[in-house]
Every structure is written in structure tokens, then in C-alpha cells.
Amino acid sequence: MWGASKSGKGPNNRITLGLIGMGRRLTGIAGAFAESDDAQMVAVSDCVDARLDYGMQRVRDLYTKKKRSSEGLKAHKDFREIIADKSIDAVAIGTPDHWHAIMSVLAAKAGKHVYCEKPLTRTIGEGRAVVKAARDNKIVFQTGSQQRTEYGGKFRKAVEYVRSGRIGELKKVYIGVGGPPVPDNLPDEDLPEGINWDMWLGPAPQRGFNEVLCPIGVHKHFPAWRRYREYAGGSLSDIGAHHFDIAQWAMDEDASGPVRVTPPDDPKATQGLSFRYKSGIEMIHGQKLGRKGCVFVGTKGEIYVDRSTLESTPGKILETPLEKNDFHLPKINSRHQLNWLDCVRSGERPVADVEIGHRTNTVCMLANLGYQLNRELRWDPKKETFANDKEASDLILQPERKAWAGIAV
Fold first, then answer.
1. Where are the domains of the chain?
2. 318-362 pLDDT, tens per residue?
3. How many CB atoms lie within 10 A of CB 403?
4. Is residue 345 within 8 Å of residue 333, measured between CB atoms?
5. Which fold has domain 4-147?
6. pTM of the predicted model, to two decimals?
7. First-to-last C-alpha distance (Å) of the chain
8. What angle do CA 59, 340, 342 make, to 5 degrees?
9. How far, in Å, CA of 343 to CA of 299, rounded?
């Protein structure tokens, strides 16, 4: 049930991994997987030949540096071959967001543990389907929300101090990230050789190739498909999936969410939307005094945290150590990917479990729908439904291309 430790599969009883989507992110975190003596990357997949070749070489180079063998490493142009391979225990998914749900559900149904990059899915309905597949098939699922583990523990410390009441009663949270997505308006371009464009599109609407969405060859940037509604949730979801995640953690709302979403008065605005929680806490999509990241405002002070900064007002808040009876997070592996592998071994839920990833992504999607529909939305986080709003309800789960429709839900 729990991978290589129970099944005995894999070289030297290691957890065998397949990597799906060999772009900048997954080829980067392949380095973390290579650090683990508990795992072995045995397969890579991509729909772009150049990136598939690069992914193979990247894994080989990592294992050469570690003085470990990469013998038997396989390349697949179709990710379903990895999922069908019974010798593979787990998969890591680093594709564009519109693919996450289908790949995650298929992997879970095949009994494979899943590490999937954030944001978890492109729609709220897909997210719930992924949670259900993970729970039904009893797999360990980590969302790639690495601020919960990494960056010197800054975010973890901020959460501990907020939940310990060191800023008094929490009243407001500001999340300084970019705006919502826009509809895809890119022109069609000639399709180069070596790209399976139909596979790149997958469940997304049919359209012609464009290099902005799918860069040609190996690239060193994060492609701009994130900007477009058909494939992702804009910067609001991309970076927001990190910072809204920390906000929900600090509010102790990992299994819930807001009850009201109110967009700004200006219908053209891309900042200023607010969320209201049952607790009365208000969360605002926008910067406070030019600060990006998370600002927690309480009755006795404030805490600001981003990847480079952790500070409080007054400063003595963070200078005073937490006491035994304060809130403390459990100690875990400080590498996000290794926390997942630890949990594959133990059967415990990881720090960014699938339910947490879904709930954070739901906040991002609610914000995007608030901007898109330009009106207040009433949300029931327990039932995951809108109150008396058919138009919003119809966007909880959105149509997919016929060839891929209904696979994830």
C-alpha cells in the first residue's frame, strides 16, 4: 500500500518515481529527488521531444553526480505509459495546470502516490475530484506548496506566532500577489516538429499552436500559459497558491474557506477583492503599504512574511520566544519533496496534503470568479456550493475537450 517499503519494488527497495512534464520546475526539483537515497527516478515524460531528451539527460547527470546508476531510465512521450507501468510507485507532475486533475486522478486510480505542483487544478470541481481519488485509493498526495517547509522556516514561524496569539486577535490578512487571468487571445502559429500539440492541449479548448503557451525546445523561464484562463488562474493563482496557502494555515482554515467574496467597485480592477470568513476575519487580495507576500494584522500588532523577510510590528513580537503552551507545528523534513517521500514510507499525510491543496486553490478560484463575474459571491465551504447563483455554480466545473472529458470527475 505504501510504495516501495511495503512492496519491495524498485532498485535496492527504493520508491520508484516517474516524472511527468520536464519543464523548468520539475527538472529543478528532480535535484531533490536525486538527493534521496530512498527513491529512484526511473521514467520521464513530455510531449515536446527536446524537453523529453533534456529530462533524460538531467536525471542521468544528477545520478552521475551522486555516483548512482540511472540504468533502466525510460522516456515516454505519453504520460499514460508511466501511469500504466506497475513497477512505478509514485509520480511527480509538473505540467501546465489544465492537466493536473486528469493526471492526478489517473495516477491515484492506478495506486500511485502523487506529488503535484500548485495550483492543484484549474477549477474547483476538479480539485474535489482529485481529493476523492486520492482518498478512495489511499495514496499519499503532496501539493507543491513548498513555503510550508522551506525558505528557512520563515512561513512556519509566522504561522506559529499568529496561531499563538502573539499579535492578539487576528482581524485582517493582506495577500500581495498579481491579478486574475485573461482569456486566450493569442494568434495561431506554425507548429514546429517535435511537439505533440494535441497532447499539450489535452482537455483545453481546441486552438492552434503558439510558442507563448508552449515554448520551442528547452527553456529557462516559466511559460506564460499561466496568464490565460483556459489553462491556469493567472498570477493570482500561481503565486497566490503559495501565499493564500500560508494565510489559510495561519487562520486554521486548512479544511475550510471563506463564506463571502466581494470584488472591488471598479469592474476593471485586478486588486482589492476581499474574502470574509465565518470567524469574521477579512482577507484582502492586495498589498498593504507596498508589501508583497502575507501581512497578518491583529489587535496587538502585525507580522509580515515573504520568502526573503520575516518581521513584526512591534519588533519584540518575533524576538520573544514561543513557550511550551504556545502553538507549535510538528517538525518535518525541510525539503518539501522529501517530506512527501517520508510520508510515502510512513503512510502519514504530508504537510501540503491534497485536501489542503484543494482548499487553497479554491480560494484562488473564488477570487478569479469574483473578478470575472464582478459581483459578490456567497460560498458554502462545507458543501462547496454557491448560494442561489447558477452562473457561478456552472463555473465550479467547466467543459473539457471531448477526448478527455469526464476522466477526472
1. 4-147, 148-180+236-404
2. 999 999 999 999 999 999 999 999 999 999 999 999 999 999 999
3. 10
4. no
5. Rossmann fold (3.40.50)
6. 0.96
7. 24
8. 100
9. 38
